Amino acid sequence: MRIHKTSVLLVNTHGENQGVVQVPTQVLRGWKKYLLFLVSIIVCLICVTGVLIHHLTSEHYREELAQANNVKNAINVARAKQSFQSIDESIYRINSFLQERGLAEIRMDNVGGGPDFEIIDINGVAEFYVQQLNEMERTIEFVPLGVPHDGEISSSFGYRRNPFSRRGAQFHTGVDFRGVTGDTIRSTAAGVVELAEWKGLYGRTVIIKHENDLRTLYGHLSSIDVAVGQEVRAGEFIGRLGNTGRTTGPHLHYEIISSDGRLNPADYFSLDID
Ligand SMILES: [Zn+2]
Predict the structure, then answer these.
(1) How far is the CA of 251 from the centre of ligand 1 (A)?
(2) Using one digit for the tens of pLDDT, what is the confidence trace for 132-183?
(3) What is the mean pLDDT of residues 257-268?
(4) What spacing in Å lies between the alpha carbon of 270 and ligand 1's midpoint?
(5) What is the largest CA-CA distance in the chain?
(6) Which of 205, 201, 206, 212 is nearest to 247 (CA)?
(7) pLDDT band of 273, cuts 50, 70, 90
(8) Which residues have CB less than 5 Å away from ligand 1 (the ion)?
(9) What distance in angstroms lies between residue 253's CA and the mean position of ligand 1's atoms?
């Protein structure tokens, strides 16, 4: 079938003939229809492209958001804050315990505070507490904590009736632990053996000097198993319970001596703060 065409005469604004163009008659008659069709295709293409771009970017955004949330959960600042506060309170309590016994040399500038402190640098805060705890560990290592023997306490520190004459008061300078001759006696803190020999009424005695100028004394021993100058750790075996010196039966007489005099060892048996 032959396509029916119409000749269009092109004339410029001065009325001059610019030539003749053959255009299909159908196109000339329905040009609005064709234009609409073309515009529709362009609009469709733009829409499809837009949807595709949106889909890709929103997926990327969701991934980024999920990753950010993961990071945020890994560093839960609120929980970290709670943990730090708990560490802070523990340090404060232990420090109070040591301070009450005249032992704290730890710098405690920032501890004992409320929960309203600001965390700007979480690693910095963590490092601060690591330092505090290391320092505390060093201090505590030389504090005579706990008991040198697990026997029952038969006589406490302080005034008591004279156990020999049963008349008049006498100041008991330590704590007595009831036991059986030969029981293991252990140092209550790290230190250096200062005395390891017979010492008058104390009988066979060990005195250990600790770094904080405290000394611990273990009396009435049946055997001494350390030598003067020897370094001992906390809990190290130093001798055996006995009945030497002035005693009314086998027991350990245990003292904590500071430069100010005798201390009550019971204050050091546990970390309780009265
Ligand atoms: Zn005693």
Answers:
(1) 8
(2) 888 888 878 888 989 999 999 999 999 988 777 777 788 999 999 999 999 9
(3) 92
(4) 20
(5) 150
(6) 201
(7) low
(8) 176, 253
(9) 4
Type of residue found at 162: N
Ligand 1 midpoint to CA 97 (Å): 25
pLDDT single digits (tens) 100-130? 776 655 555 555 555 566 667 777 888 888 8
Given the structure tokens 């997926």, which residue do they identify?
59
How far is ligand 1, taken at its centre, from the CA of residue 146, in Å?
A: 17
Dist. CA 209 → ligand 1 center (Å):
20
CA of 256 to the centre of ligand 1 (A): 12
Angle between helices 77-100 and 122-141 (to 10 degrees): 20
Q: In a 10 Å sphere around its CB, with 0-12 CB exposed, 13-18 middle and 19+ buried, how is residue 221 labelled?
A: buried
Measured in angstroms, how far is the CA atom of residue 182 from the centroid of ligand 1? 17
- pTM of the complete model beyond 0.85: no
Asked if 205 and 195 touch (Cβ cutoff 8 Å), the reply is: yes
Q: Average pLDDT for residues 237-260, to the nearest whole number?
A: 95
Q: How far apart are CA 159 and CA 34, in angstroms?
A: 118
Distance 95 CA to ligand 1 centre (A): 30
